[in-house]
Every structure is written in C-alpha cells, then in structure tokens.
Amino acid sequence: MTGSIRETAPAKINLALHVTGRRADGYHLLDSLVTFATDGDGLHLSPASEDSFRVTGRFGALLGEAQDNLVIRARDLLRTVVRSTGHATPPVAITLDKALPIASGIGGGSADAAATLRGLCRLWNIRLPDDAMKALALSLGADVPMCLASRPALARGIGEELTPVPALPSLALVLVNPLVSVSTPEIFRRLEWRDNDPMPPLPVDRQADWTAFLASQRNDLEPPARALVDEIVTVSGALAASGASLVRMSGSGATCFGLYAAPAEAERAARRLTEQHPLWYVQPTSTVCGE
C-alpha cells in the first residue's frame, strides 16, 4: 500500500439539462451537458491501524451521520468488491474537506464518492476493469460514474450513459449558492413537461462559440426551482448584473453559474458578489477541457 493520497472531488456543473422522459420506475430521462470545475471538496486518505472518517471545512458540520455519508458507502462497497478478488484492503483514515455546499446541484456527495473510489484504488494499488468500476460507481448513484471520470460529457439515460465531449473548452465562471436548501424530488414533481426536446448536436470545434450554443439551450429544472425558491431569482439577477455573459442554474439548484470571458473577469465578479452578499457561497473557478 502506498503512502497518503490526496484527491479533489470537483464540482459538477450542468451547463444544460433537458428532461426528455420518464421511466416506468419513476426515474427521469435526461439529456445533459456536464463539465467539472477545478475547485471542489478535498479528500485525504492515508494508511491507518483502523478505519476512521472525519469531516472538516466550511460545510462539514452540516453533514448528517458519518455512516450515511457516500464516502463511507463507497469505501465499504469497493472493499467488498476488491476482497472478493483476494486483494488486501487495509484500514484507511479518510478526511473530507467539505468546501461545496450541501445538496446544491453541483454533485457534492457524488463527487466525494467518486473521489473516494479513485483515491482508494491508488492507496490500495489496485485497478478494476473499467466496466466493473463504472458498475460499482452507478450502484452508489446515477451521477457517480460521470464524477468518476470528471471530464466533460453528454449524459443521457438517468445520467449513466456518458459520451465524452472533447471539443468543450475550459470556461471561466462563478458559482453562487444562497445557502438555501432545495428538494430535488419536489423540483421534479413540479415539472410541467417531462418529454421535452433533447439537445441538438454539439459543436465539434473547441474554437466554436460555445457561449452562444449554451445560451440556446436550457435547464428544464430551473423554472420549477425558481417558482419554489425565490433566492434563485435573486442569485441569477446578481450574476447577470456582475457582467456574466450567460447565467443558468446547475442541476436541481440552488447553485447558479455565470460565464465570463476570462478568469480575471470571473475573479472580479466574485469579489463584488462576496462584498454584496457575504453570506452566500461564491466561488470563481474554471472548468476542465475536454480531451
């Protein structure tokens, strides 16, 4: 087993999210363009005499019981799978630095679970076949496979059918959350239409006007979320006033993002937004490039 491992659990951003149907089991079908920020939660994993898990960071105290955390579920599930192959899985001390807001539409829990899988594979010096790893990730949640890759992708089905988007460039943006909880089941319940059009073909050139393309798309969860949570309207207005070229809610909210022409513009906007709304979560960041 190697020494200590550090993993980033990057924020997941739904640049567009179209709800295209509903399965018989109640799960909604999606057509979503997803990318990942260079900022997120942090995990530190190290060899130990016995398993342990602790949470630090701005939002750590807001998490529930430790044993319900997706980090623990990911650790235990991976250990069961790996032990069945005869490979050792020694005890591990895990610290989660919770920098992303809870239940905020940017994949915090799913990203943490995915980072745990990546980190433990490195710590235990193991490599599962890709199909087995993806199946394990999916058993933890529909968003975990995309967070496992943490690369731009077109996500279909319930989010598990992933197609890489190599042409998507890095985007400068600001994430803002008013620190108001949003019920994802309630947002889906309030959807007026569940059989919306999917996205058209994506640009195939990294030099294309991606902002214009994204502006022509939508997040079908945003209208019911705005009707349910007034603060989303306030956040969107503040981002627009800060000079963002495009403002949209991510996932089921309440986090919204604004796109800017360059990282320096995003930094300036974030400073103004923090001054105006010191209690909000405001994070300037960039997204990863497709590859």
TrEMBL record:
SUPFAM superfamilies in alphabetical order: GHMP Kinase, C-terminal domain, Ribosomal protein S5 domain 2-like
Family statement: Belongs to the GHMP kinase family. IspE subfamily.
EC number, UniProt record: 2.7.1.148
All copies of domain GHMP kinase N-terminal, residue ranges: 69-149
UniProt name for this protein: 4-diphosphocytidyl-2-C-methyl-D-erythritol kinase
Task performed by this protein: Catalyzes the phosphorylation of the position 2 hydroxy group of 4-diphosphocytidyl-2C-methyl-D-erythritol.
Active site: residue positions: K12, D143
Residues annotated as domain GHMP kinase C-terminal: 215-276
A Pfam family this chain is assigned to: GHMP_kinases_C
rRNA processing keyword on record: no
